[in-house]
Specification:
2 domains, about 40% helix, binds 3-methyl-2-oxobutanoic acid, globular, alpha/beta, about 270 residues
Amino acid sequence: MSLHSEVKRVTVHTLRSMKANGEKIAMLTSYDYSMAKIIDEAGIDVILVGDSASNVIAGHETTLPITLDQMIYHAQAVIRAIKRALIVVDLPFGAYQGNSRKALESSIRIMKESGAHAIKMEGGVEIEESVKRVLSAGVPVMGHLGLTPQSIYKFGTYTVRAREEMEANKLRSDIKALEEMGCFSVVLEKIPATLAKEVSQSVDIPTIGIGAGSDTDGQVLVIHDMMGINKEFNPRFLRRYADLYTIMQDATKNYIEDVKSKDFPNEKEQY
Ligand code: KIV
C-alpha cells in the first residue's frame, strides 16, 4: 500500500474537510481481506477494524476477550485489501486502560505490524494521559463516547446512554476534552439524537454516529449487521441493506442438494 498510489486516499485531514464542507462520512467495520476489498472498491471512506470482531467473528458475548494479537491479525488482512479508505483499528480491552505506556506500546504494535493509519480508544477524560501519549508518537487517535462496549459490565445493559443530565454533561465535556487533546474524530454510540446533534456542532472534529441520529458528521455500522449476515441483533438504529444470511444459507442448501444428487460437479466442471 503506497501513500503515492494513484487513488486519492482518505486521510484524517480529508475527514475534517468533509465536516467543514458538510459532506457526510461513511464508515463500516471490516475484519478480513475479502470484505474489506468489496467495501473499499465501493467507495467507503473509513474502515474500522473494530473489536466487534470479538462478537461477529469469534462469537463472544462481549468485546472484552479479543486480544491485541488478534486485532493485529484482522488489521493486517484488511490493510492488504484497501487502496483508498482510512483504516482505524480498535485498541482492545486491556491494551490501554489505566496505563499510558501500554497504550503507546499497543498503538505502535498496531501501526508497525499492520500498517493501519489510526487507532481508536473508548472513553473521555479518564484516558487523557493515554490519548496524549499515543498522539505524541504521531499516531492519530479516534475517540469513542456514549455506549462504550468495553465498559458493558459497568453499564450492566446495552441501552441508550446519556439520557440523564449528569451523563449528558459528562459527554459534553468529554468530547471537548478529546478535541483539545488532539483526537481527529469521535464515535458517538447509542445516545439521544438531540444530544448527538448538539455535541457534533460544539466541535470542529467530525463525529461518527451509531444509534445517534442523523446529525452526526458520519455514520458507522458493523458490516455483519448491515449486510444481514446475523439475524439475532435487531436494534432500532440498524438498517439492513442485504439479507446475506438467507442468500448464503440458500446457496449452501443448493450446494448440498447438488452434491448429494451427484449433479455437482458436472462434465464441464472437471478435468
Ligand atoms: O467495534 C466496533 O465495531 C465499534 C463500532 C460499533 C463503532 O466500535
